[in-house]
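chain below, 114 aa
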Amino acid sequence: QVQLVESGGGLVQAGGSLRLSCRASGTIFSISTMGWYRQAPGKQRELVAAITRGGNTNYVDSVKGRFTISRDNTKNTVYLQMNSLKPEDTGVYYCNLQYDFSSWGQGTQVTVSS
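prediction:
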């Protein structure tokens, strides 16, 4: 199994920025699809952004133009740069690795105040 450790969450005012990081253990990071999901209070977990092993990305419509997902295979790390944050971006953000199996991080809280 792969262990994923997220960092970078916190409290920020609307309009601010945060960068989330997720570091993976093991040797399959570079051949895996990585994703960031979030779960707001009382809502289902949703995919925010994903990046394939080849660098193709996709985003949920609500974050397009504001969030950027990237990866550094030399560091086994995926990032989520979040700009122009809104209160509705508040939630727990989870890192996910997809290979022949799925692994999840423990989550990091992002709170955007209005």
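The longest strand covers residues 91-98. The two ends are 39 Å apart (CA to CA).
thats it, cya
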